[in-house]
Amino acid sequence: MNARQDPVSRLVWIWLTLLVLLAVTTASAYVDLGAGNSIANLIIAAAKAALIALFFMHLRRSDATVRVAAGAALLFLFFLAFLTFGDYLTRPMHPAPWRSPQESTLNPHAV
């Protein structure tokens, strides 16, 4: 039988692919790539989400209404992340207004 004709076989292959991507994500935690770790893990997470949405959630064969709802959910998630990141970028970076216990005992009258 061809893998295209057997849906169980195809789902098993997708599941094995997800397990390999999970192993790659776990292995990337032990490799120091700096900011590259975050970028690689986001790409891997997007690939895993796409596989789950297309094959396990059957978005390829679903109605247009379901596809629009999934797209709206992704758009809403993007807006939430964009607004959160925008808030983080616009906040002033001030040091914390507390002192360590050693500083407090050295000069008790300092404010």
Structure description:
- The protein is an all-alpha fold.
- It is built from four helices and no strands.
- The longest helix is centred in the C-terminal third of the chain and has 27 residues, at 64-90.
- The mean pLDDT is 86.
List keywords for this structure.
single chain; 111 residues; mainly alpha; 4 helices; 69% helix
Question: Biggest β-sheet: count, sense, barrel?
Answer: none
Shape: elongated
Q: What helical percentage do the residues reach?
A: 55-70%
Number of E-state strands = 0
- Computed Rg: 24 Å
The fraction of residues in strands falls at under 5%
Tell me the number of helical segments per DSSP (H or I, 4 or more residues long): 4
Mean pLDDT: 86
Summarize the helix and strand pattern as letters.
HHHH
End-to-end CA span? 78 Å
> What is the structural class?
mainly alpha
Could you name the ranges where pLDDT drops below 50 across 5 or more consecutive residues?
Answer: none
